[in-house]
Amino acid sequence: MLGTDEPIYPDPSPELLAAAAELRAQMSPARLRALVESIPGPRSRLHARPAMDQAGAQITDAWRAAGWITERQELDLRGEWGLRDEPATGTPRKRITRYEELHGANLIATRPGRETDAIVVAAHLDTVWNSPGADDNAAGVVVLMEVARLLDARGLRRTVVLAAPDFEEIGLIGSRELVRLLRQRHRVRGAIVFDPIGFMDPRPDTQHVPPGVGLLYPRQLERLAARDNAGDGVVAIHRRRSTALVRVWAECAAAAVGRERVVMLRDPCDLPIIGPLLNLVPLARNFSRSDHRRFWDARLPAIQVTNTANFRNPHYHRASDKPATLDYETLADITVATVLAVRRLAA
To answer: Which of 68, 82, 90, 259 has the least C-beta neighbours within 10 A?
Structure first.
């Protein structure tokens, strides 16, 4: 009745399950951990530029080695309003600040298809000032590197774009510029945005939800309770415009991760009748905290794939967000799901 029920999708076919198993045999959780460990952190143009440059070079080298066309979208911005990202010392200052200058870059890799219509996969590269950022968001960036390695160029009708936006942590600034560039070049048919996806905890009562979520998403909360509120689900946040996209993602994720762990949540601000009113409710802001929001702002179909960040991970935005805390088996499964979804969406 509210429009919050999960979109219906079929059980994975034997062919899809076989494809998932074939890809999974090419994945190594140990390799994923080594890649996450190799990405330096903290990394930011504001307070850790050398680490950001090193991480960017690693990603670009991996994309090039896999045969993708790479580029940097240089960002030279002035007078930008954004979130303050620095240690709190002395008198607390306002959370919003004006940056006189910002100099950074979005990293982009392209595999051209027969059409310029594009499927986009994105994960931001920067971190907050005090965090190594293994879960947020090195794990997502590593998926971008592995998708580049595993995705066969043969049979691609649509172009595939991989992107690591800059300045996410201070207000989704890099992705705003990325979307502008993509719209000039492509008709974006779908975007999958990872943030964050590495931390999982299968123990009971490790998944928390904001107050009021049960009123909007009763069936999803029932499913969560049936699994003892374990914090190991893979959540896809979507809007009506991205229903077809999230169905494809969910079916592929079910083949790789297991249907019982796949959860879909429609952005409450996108709901009929009550959606505009929910824009005023703090709860609703939790559904648009990452770069997928910039695709939504441009009326493009996009989903965020997430582990729900601070509603599960006690290390979120902390110095303890380290590689040893992540679940690399599930990260491998998410990578498989992504390759399967991009194959279907771009074929």
So the answer is: 90
Q: Cα separation of 91 and 124, whole Å?
A: 31
Provide the residue type at 161 as one letter: V
| Torsion angles phi and psi, residue 323, rounded to 5 | -55, -30
Look-up: residue for tokens 């008709």? Answer: 187
Q: How far apart are alpha carbons 106 and 97 in whole angstroms?
A: 22
Measured CA to CA, the distance from residue 248 to residue 251 in angstroms comes to: 5
Distance CA 339, CA 343 (A): 6
**Pick from 179, 191, 189: nearest CA to 117:** 189
Return the structure tokens found at 103: 């100099």
Between CA 234 and CA 62 the distance in angstroms is 26
With beta carbons less than 8 A apart as the criterion, state whether 265 and 220 touch. Answer: yes
Residue 7, classified by CB atoms within 10 Å of its CB into exposed (0-12), middle (13-18) or buried (19+), is: middle
pLDDT in tens, the chain (347 residues): 578 999 999 999 999 999 999 999 999 999 999 999 999 999 999 999 999 999 999 999 999 999 999 999 999 999 999 999 976 555 555 689 999 999 999 999 999 999 999 999 999 999 999 999 999 999 999 999 999 999 998 889 999 999 999 999 999 999 999 999 999 999 999 999 999 999 999 999 999 999 889 999 999 999 999 999 999 999 999 999 999 999 999 999 999 999 999 999 999 999 998 898 888 888 898 999 999 999 999 999 999 999 999 999 999 999 999 999 999 999 999 999 999 999 999 99
Q: For residue 310, give the DSSP letter.
A: G
Residue matched to tokens 């000039």: 184
Look at the chain and count its residues.
Answer: 347
Instruction: Specify the pairing of strand 96-111 against strand 159-164.
Output: antiparallel
> Nearest Cα to 237, choosing from 179, 296, 277, 183?
296
What's at 152, amino acid-wise? D
Exposed, middle or buried by CB within 10 Å (0-12, 13-18, 19+), for 29?
middle
